[in-house]
Amino acid sequence: MKLFLATGNQHKIEEMKKILADTDIEILSKNDIETMPEVIEDQDTFIGNSLKKAREIAEYIGMATIADDSGLVVQALNGQPGVYSARFAGENATDQENNQKLLELLKDIPLAEREAYFICAMAFVSTEGKEYTVTGKCHGHITFKAQGEEGFGYDPLFIPKGYKKSFAQLGSEVKNKISHRAKALDKMKDYLIK
């Protein structure tokens, strides 16, 4: 089965390819085509954004497509950054700027109240217009300062439940087993392979 991953994020492409490596699903991405239209993520839910992306790209590419929308949800911040995770500190914000803003907003919040979870909403759209969505979550908490060099986004600030190291310290082998994206992809894999 050939599947197109509708993401411009090279980190996500590599992560998803690693997670699906043990299947007979052939993954194509922006690296395999000349142009990919930019889809405006203007929905107010992760599922809404992932479905919009998958529909538009599947129609453009003409092949079965998977798209995801993921982000960080922090309880003490009423669910922020949420669907705005990638642009939390502004439209073209860097990971570092987003992380700084998050730490600033949480500076007076004690560790016990820094609970958070990563969520990944993933949508599949076939060439016939068949649609399927799944979500995966990884619970944990936000640290007081960035820790580790690996990963991307909020990984240096997020300690998954049951661990003492951040996603950026745990490395891709561990992360790809316990992350929100891994959990969503596992569910999607079950659907695609059945």
UniProtKB/TrEMBL annotation:
Binding residues annotated for substrate, in chain numbering: 7-12, 70, 152-155, 175, 180-181
Cofactor binding, per record: Binds 1 Mg(2+) ion per subunit.
Domain of life: Bacteria
Active-site residues, Swiss-Prot/TrEMBL: 69
SUPFAM superfamilies registered for this protein in UniProt: ITPase-like
EC numbers: 3.6.1.66
Residues reported in the UniProt entry to bind Mg(2+): 69
Protein's job: Pyrophosphatase that catalyzes the hydrolysis of nucleoside triphosphates to their monophosphate derivatives, with a high preference for the non-canonical purine nucleotides XTP (xanthosine triphosphate), dITP (deoxyinosine triphosphate) and ITP. Seems to function as a house-cleaning enzyme that removes non-canonical purine nucleotides from the nucleotide pool, thus preventing their incorporation into DNA/RNA and avoiding chromosomal lesions.
Name under which the protein is recorded: dITP/XTP pyrophosphatase
Species of provenance: Orenia metallireducens
